[in-house]
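Reply to dn_fold:

You asked what the input looked like. This is it:
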Amino acid sequence: MKIVKQFAIVFFILYLGYVIVSLLHLPIPANVVGMVLLLLALIAKIIKREDAEDVSAFIIQYLPVFFIAPSAGIMLYFDLFKKEFLAIFIPLLISIILGFLVAGKVTELLMKKGDE
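and this is what came back:
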């Protein structure tokens, strides 16, 4: 019964993300808004960590399954990817590098702040 409660909490917050995006016409995916809401609720201790811990572990455990359909789609359009390789690869590479740099800087700042 505990896992059902946790799923209900996570899905309710995800639904709130969809409502917010629909009402405000935000150009952000609703699931991202929902996860930010979940993060804020956890930080503010509105939701206890124990109220989302088991379901989060369950979702992470089966996360690779969610990549099967996109991988099949990539194989379906392989000729298009081959034709537009540089147009896809260069922005992808730049965004990965920027993501690593930003994550590294944020980690450094948080570690320095934690030492103070």
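The two ends are 42 Å apart (CA to CA).
Hope that clears it up.
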